[in-house]
Automatic annotation (TrEMBL):
Residues 8-235 form the MOFRL-associated domain. This is DUF4147 domain-containing protein. SUPFAM superfamilies: GckA/TtuD-like. Residues 303-410 form the MOFRL domain. It comes from Parasedimentitalea maritima. InterPro entries: GK-like_C_sf, GK_N_sf, MOFRL, MOFRL_assoc_dom, MOFRL_protein.
Length: 419
């Protein structure tokens, strides 16, 4: 089994390396160099997201003076960057540090003139790391809504539709603060389908929808009544404030799909197939998709089934975990019941963190479910309580990588050898 684990970890590493934000930015600026600044102008470089630090470091090596730089990332990825102010926010739930970062971004953009150029380096996680409540709302209001969203089971686009309408930065708000300076944005996608409006809630692009649509989504998800009264009033009263926005140049420099291709290339010794690059929806349904593919795969040769996406978890209990850990735990359960042979399954977040835990995900085999039982734990009860972290820890089945400095959503690997 150790060679299956080694192979799975090497494929996961290939996915993370392909999403290296510094290398992606370097390639882009080599292919399309920035034009010269106007006389007296500055490059105002702002990096937002889990990949902000490596993107900012690379940008400062490539983008000439005069310039001023601000980088905001998560605490795990925070580091000193000579020539830049560095801040950390909170993820996945924003806090006062996230609000302070939002104020810093707005204050820096307020200094922009039409001779300046704003260069935005955007990656996943920015929705929580940098927050600026819309007029009439507080950080507590936004945090309360974010908690509701994370427990709602909504797709990421629906979550970001709502977040944008509560923000002064998201959904193109950065463009308004930057005006009259033009904005050039380089974007690393953590969103399946690479909708630029959804990545970090789209600070440099038009919003996904309107306030009325945000209200409708919350009502359909049955979280409207639990939202703060100020949020309800804001969405009921606010017109489509971003109907007209300053133009920007937005370029996608990396994505989940690129990483999946690198995994396929690295699995050349296997019968490797990309089964899905849109593994979304509830983890239980996603597990069935993976199980069906595994059952249909050949059994007479080594197979590697590759998936990518971003699932969701319906939180019904009080346990600790994340979507990758819960997906792995579900596969451990159903795989033990239905799969034969020597198999292994890995599900991991390319950012190295899955939910509010120190794990990136899970690695399970045909033995994992029984190993949890042998530890004295009840895997069914832990799964029902959304306590996937404890369940996988009991079987030494957590995927722990540390922060990777990038974020292109999640990848999944199913490996099986002939018996």
């Amino acid at each position: 089994m150790s060679d299956l684990r080694t192979t799975a970890l090497s494929l996961f590493d290939a996915a993370v390396k392909r999403a290296d934000p510094a290398a992606a930015l370097r390639r882009q600026l080599a292919d399309q160099p920035l034009p010269a600044l106007q006389d007296g102008g500055r490059n105002i470089v702002i990096a937002i997201g889990k990949a902000a630090s490596p993107m900012m470091k690379e940008a400062l090596d490539l983008i000439p003076e005069p310039r001023v730089a601000l980088s905001v990332t998560n605490p795990e990825n925070l580091c000193d960057i000579p020539g830049a102010t560095t801040l950390s926010g909170s993820h996945p739930v924003p806090d006062e540090a996230s609000a302070a970062a939002g104020r810093a971004v707005i204050d820096l953009l307020a200094s922009a003139t039409d001779n300046d150029r704003v260069i935005a380096l955007i990656s996943g996680g920015g929705s929580a790391l940098v927050v600026a409540p819309a007029v009439g709302l507080t950080l507590d209001d936004k945090a309360a809504v974010n908690e509701l969203l994370l427990a709602s089971g909504l797709e990421i686009n629906d979550m970001n539709l709502i977040r944008q309408q509560l923000s002064a930065i998201k959904g193109g708000g950065l463009l308004r603060h930057a005006a009259p300076a033009p904005v050039t944005a380089y974007i690393l996608s953590d969103v399946i389908g690479d909708d630029l409006r959804a990545i970090a809630s789209g600070p440099s692009v038009a919003p996904i929808g309107t306030p009325a649509q945000a209200r409708d989504v919350m009502q359909q998800a049955e979280i409207w009544d639990a939202a703060p009264a100020s949020v309800q009033a804001h969405l009921d009263a606010t017109p489509n404030q971003y109907a007209s926005l300053p133009e920007a140049s937005n370029t996608l420099i990396g994505s989940n799909r690129h990483s999946l291709q690198s995994m396929l290339d690295a699995a050349s010794d296997w019968d490797a197939q990309l089964i899905s690059d849109h593994l979304t929806g509830d983890v239980e349904a996603a597990t069935q998709t993976i199980l069906d593919a595994a059952l249909a795969a050949p059994t007479d040769r080594p197979v590697a089934l590759i998936f990518g996406g971003e699932t969701t978890v319906q939180i019904k209990g009080t346990g600790l975990g994340g979507r990758n850990q819960e997906l792995a735990l579900w596969l451990a359960k159903l795989g033990a019941e239905h799969l034969t042979g020597d198999w292994l399954f890995l599900s991991g977040g390319t950012d190295g963190r899955d939910g509010p835990t120190q794990a990136a995900g899970g690695i399970v085999t045909a033995k994992t479910w029984n190993q949890i039982r042998k530890s004295g734990a009840n895997p069914d009860a832990l799964l029902a309580n959304n306590d996937s972290n404890a369940a996988l820890a009991a079987a030494d089945a957590l995927l722990v990588t540390g922060a990777t400095g990038t974020n292109v959503a999640d990848v999944q690997i199913f490996l099986r050898r002939p018996s």
